[in-house]
Design a protein that fits this description.
348 residues, alpha+beta, Beta-Lactamase, 3 domains, seven-stranded antiparallel sheet, six-stranded antiparallel sheet, elongated
């Protein structure tokens, strides 16, 4: 008796499947933290929302399954452990033989935050590998560490990794989901993922890059992200006039304007005239005088509790030696999603 799936008597035998000559794009797999690592966040320039690597186009190509798909997670782990490129041969019933390439994405400390995967016929040259940048944050020093590739994306002119205060880092973006990113910087937030697009600011060269950010936090004050350019597959949004207007607003030399995320207490925007003592708040993290911290915590709690305005005085320093006496008017801007407050800062 013939098997149930055997062709009927006289029916032609199916022809062997042919492998497509078109190469699949490089797959970007995040290895940001140990928990749930190995999710796909991009295929070529196209973003993916933390999907399984076994569901990527590389794995789902029916001409390569299951021989290729089964080994992809293992190749990712091998690349993560070795922190160096890996090549694996894949033996399949149908020719030609395949190869899988894995290349680590390193942050400035040489930690492997991602792995780029590609597979295809052994004789085929892999397509160009997309540039992937990294971004890290820790609550200890409250600095964003951007890789040299990210500095290139942002058009800063820097050729090496940089440590940046939040206002300094975020001023290089014309559009970005600040609240979503700041949630990952909250030490009281459970481990979570973040996926969003952003547009870099025009630094006078007319270049605005459309970027995708895929990030995770560890729930203990650390955040890591992979960033790549999506401008070839997603149109760049038009400029936001409001953000450009804010940057051009005139301020008195003794005056600064800041925006604080009340839940975390993180200041993520700071405007002050160049040359003034308060201008340092853009590129440095100010420290509040120990004797004044309690009063600032009280004001934050009152604003989070429903108050719309508060006024208090406190001292800050940028170098632990010179203390600036400030008079600060706190005003709640929004309570939607995450309460934000504007701080009108006057140096006394």
């Amino acid at each position: 008796m013939k098997p149930p799936d055997a062709p009927a008597s006289g029916a032609p035998t199916p022809a062997p499947r042919r492998r497509s000559a078109a190469p699949v794009p490089w797959v970007l797999v995040e290895t940001l933290f140990d928990q749930d690592r190995g999710a796909v966040v991009a295929e070529g320039a196209s973003p993916r929302e933390f999907t399984r690597v076994t569901r990527s186009r590389l794995a789902q190509d029916t001409l390569r399954t299951p021989h290729l798909a089964k080994m992809l997670p293992t190749v990712v782990d091998d690349c993560l452990v070795a922190a160096s490129p890996q090549v694996r041969a894949v033996h399949t019933p149908l020719p030609p033989p395949l190869r899988v390439y894995a290349v680590p994405v390193l942050d400035p400390t040489n930690a492997v935050l991602g792995v780029q995967l590609w597979g295809g016929p052994r004789a085929m040259v892999p397509p160009p590998r997309p540039t992937v940048a990294t971004l890290t944050w820790n609550s200890r020093d409250q600095l964003m560490t951007s890789s040299a590739a990210l500095e290139q994306f942002l058009g800063t002119g820097e050729t090496t990794a940089r440590h940046r205060a939040l206002p300094d880092f975020l001023q290089h973006f014309e559009q970005i989901d600040r609240v979503g990113l700041l949630r990952l910087c909250d030490t009281n937030t459970a481990p979570a993922t973040f996926s969003s697009t952003a547009v870099s600011a025009d630094h006078g060269d007319g270049i605005r890059r459309h970027l995708h950010i895929a990030a995770r936090n560890d729930g203990a004050g650390a955040m890591r992200a992979l960033i790549h350019d999506i401008g070839t597959v997603v149109a760049t949004p038009a400029p936001h006039m409001q953000s450009l207007l804010m940057r051009a607003a005139p301020l008195h030399p003794d005056h600064a304007v800041a925006v604080m995320d009340l839940a975390t207490g993180l200041i993520h925007d700071w405007l002050a005239p160049e040359g003034s003592p308060l201008h340092r708040g853009i590129v440095e993290v100010p420290r509040i005088h120990p004797a004044d911290i309690g009063d600032c915590v009280r004001v934050r709690k009152e604003l989070l509790g429903g108050a719309n305005n508060r006024l208090n005085d406190f001292r800050i320093t940028f170098d632990q030696h010179t203390w600036l006496q400030l008079s600060v008017h706190w005003h709640v801007l929004t309570r939607q999603t995450s309460p934000q407050a504007m701080l009108s800062v006057l140096q006394q």
